[in-house]
């Protein structure tokens, strides 16, 4: 049976906490410096901190583009309005960790939409419209604000959803989750 490759041994040692400590000890004895432990942040999160304090940014964005023809029947025959747009939404915030294992998380979500309709010449003549109509949000529109404090098995949460023109008004929410042990 062949001896295992040195790279395979090192990779297998990196898979465990004890193996990483052994490699760091061997490197120190040889007078070499290894980079900081890549496994120091858990679950693939970006987190920085010291002495029990930490901060982890949280960012999520998604979006898409659409394009479609809207059929219109006119006296001159069938026609269509070309509609297209870009829609982006997301949420961003940060989680702050404290030495007592409590955690404060704050975030804001929002969206952006920009679109246009292109009218063919026959509809421009018939309806008296411009060749192109642009519409959309005026920049990024905040849709939700959130704040949560976790301590032990308990948490306090607050949120605000601003009203949207033409729809219902603002919405506030506050909650407490408390666990009692019997």
Order of helices and strands: HHEEEEHEEEE
Shape: elongated
Helical residue percent band:
10-25%
The major β-sheet equals: 8 strands, antiparallel
Q: Helical stretch count?
A: 3
- CA-atom Rg in angstroms: 28 Å
* Distance N to C terminus: 59 Å
What do the pLDDT scores average to?
Answer: 79
| Beta-strand segment tally | 8
Uncertain runs are 34-44
User: What would you call the structural class?
Assistant: alpha+beta
Strand content: over 45%
What does this protein look like?
With 182 residues, this protein is of the alpha+beta class. It is built from three helices and eight strands, in the order ααββββαββββ. The protein has helices spanning 6-14, 17-29, 121-127, and strands spanning 48-50, 53-74, 77-97, 103-118, 132-136, 141-151, 154-161, 171-177. Strands 1, 2, 3, 4, 5, 6, 7 and 8 form an eight-stranded antiparallel sheet that branches. A hairpin with a 5-residue loop joins strand 3 (77-97) and strand 4 (103-118). Helix 1 (6-14) crosses helix 2 (17-29). The chain is elongated. The model is unreliable at 34-44 (pLDDT under 50).
């Amino acid at each position: 049976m062949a001896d295992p490759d040195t790279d395979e041994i090192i990779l297998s040692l990196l898979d465990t906490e004890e193996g990483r400590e052994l490699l760091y000890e061997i490197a120190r004895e040889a007078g070499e410096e290894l980079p900081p432990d890549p496994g120091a942040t858990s679950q693939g999160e970006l987190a920085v901190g010291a002495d029990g304090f930490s901060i982890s940014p949280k960012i999520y964005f998604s979006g898409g583009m659409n394009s479609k023809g809207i059929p219109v029947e006119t006296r001159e025959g069938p026609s269509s309005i070309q509609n297209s747009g870009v829609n982006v939404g997301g949420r961003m915030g940060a989680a702050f960790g404290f030495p007592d294992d409590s955690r404060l998380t704050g975030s804001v979500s929002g969206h952006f939409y920009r679109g246009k309709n292109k009218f063919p010449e026959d509809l421009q003549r018939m309806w008296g419209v411009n060749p192109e109509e642009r519409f959309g949000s005026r920049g990024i529109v905040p849709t939700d604000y959130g704040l949560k404090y976790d301590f032990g098995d308990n948490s306090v949460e607050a949120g605000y959803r601003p009203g949207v023109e033409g729809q219902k008004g603002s919405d506030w929410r506050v909650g407490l989750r408390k666990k009692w042990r019997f």
